[in-house]
Amino acid sequence: MRALVLGAGGQLGSELMRLLPGATGLLRHDLSVSDRAGIEAACVHYRPEVMFNCAAYNAVDKAEIEPKLAYAVNSLGAENPALACSRHGVRLIHFSTNFVFDGRLDRPYTEKDEAQPLSTYGRSKLEGERSALAALPAALVIRTAAVFGDRGSEIKGGSFPQRIVERARRGERIRVVSDQRVNPTYARDLARAAIKLAAGDLSGVVHVVAAGCCGWDDFARAALAACGVEAEVEPVTTAELAAPAARPLNGCLGSVRTDALRPWQEGVADWAAGWEGGQG
Predict the structure, then answer these.
(1) What topology is assigned to 3-216+224-278 in CATH?
(2) Is 70 helix (H, G, I), strand (E, B) or coil?
(3) Residue 186 falls in the annotated catalytic set
């Protein structure tokens, strides 16, 4: 598979690069997905068979005060690769988020459910999905949730479990939201699934997440336990946190189009073994 990975420096992009020997990876400073001419030139130069668009603006709260940048990356940055892939016959795999839903259902959201985002981030990602599929109906949009990995999010200062463990080791107070539920999805598992789907002909929107849902506080406790760190996790509510951007309380995804990945707890255990080993 001759692959081009956009956003190759992030936690998902870096896993795709690890699993796809010979793939070409472009970092944010190499090429912005909002640069239409640049995306076109990259497609011509590298001649990929498949393009994975992992680039995203994911600073959820900050997006409320800089919506133009969020839309430039998440919407225009989805349309540009789709247009280039359409012109050159390239398979496109684009990644989206559970934040396109409002979180009011009492069950996991499937591909059949109506998207109703609550935040600028969620709206920009939904617009990106629609722009990509309008430009290239054969594209595959993978929605996922609570992705964590070895590399971690640069904007957020590392992956969620990494930040929790490091704070606990520094003796800091650990307060984590308890009334938002998600499927913690290990980036390596997501990357493997995306590669498999890229080799097929599935198009449109599909949900790819770990099996099982939990509160962020339970996710934090699992990370601490997997790393052998004893620390108390204090549950707090979304209302208590009063974050600038609204978040879906039920961020759990399910699928009617594909099977779930392995249970999220197994991904956390593998993440801990790999990340702890990397810490020396």
Answers:
(1) Rossmann fold (3.40.50)
(2) helix
(3) no
